Amino acid sequence: MPNSNQHLITTAAQLASVFGEIAAPSLRKEVAYLHLHYQAMIAASPFAVLATSGPDGLDASPRGDAAGFVLVQDQHTLLLPERKGNNRVDSLRNLLADPRMALLFLIPGVGETLRVNGRAAISLDPALLARCAVDGKAPKCVLVISVETVYFQCARAIYRSGLWQNTAPPASLPSPGTILEALSEAQILAEVYDQGLRARQQASLY
């Protein structure tokens, strides 16, 4: 039997040789706060995946409600209501041991997703519970998330999957170029970046 270990990537240098350098826009889109354009994406999202880590391992679980169910408290804080479920509370148990977490926001019809990394605390603050109530029913608790990094993910995975075929994006959302122009202080121009973006992504799906 051949030794399959010889084909494993085990160093950062090997990774770099396979994937090359990071493109400038991929670096400029990452910030340590909730830019207004990123807030718009959160407000338009009805679905997110919450990732956590704890003594028993990793967990990724869905969160969903009407668009905007994750509330922006301020540029550095998100509020995620925890509603009725199966009571496994794997994510919450993990957060008790390790507050680090990540959120992946999806928006129907939009190829780009939004990634938020940070730390979460589990709150029973009556004011927060009331603020997150739906039809008069408060969540079980609220995750108060301190944001550390935020950036949008390119649309290639969504295009490859065909996830949003025949679904139109909200007209109010900023384009990827608009976000990059704002975050790069116009060093990257929206019109230039957006022009042919879909074609560039399609040409590099695989």
From TrEMBL:
Q: Which Pfam families match?
A: PNPOx_N (PF01243)
Domain (Pyridoxamine 5'-phosphate oxidase N-terminal): residue spans on this chain:
37-154
Q: Which Gene3D superfamilies match?
A: Electron Transport, Fmn-binding Protein, Chain A
InterPro entries reported in the protein's UniProt record: Pyridox_Oxase_FMN-dep, Pyridox_Oxase_N, Split_barrel_FMN-bd
What's the domain of life for this entry? Bacteria
UniProt name for this protein: Pyridoxamine 5'-phosphate oxidase family protein
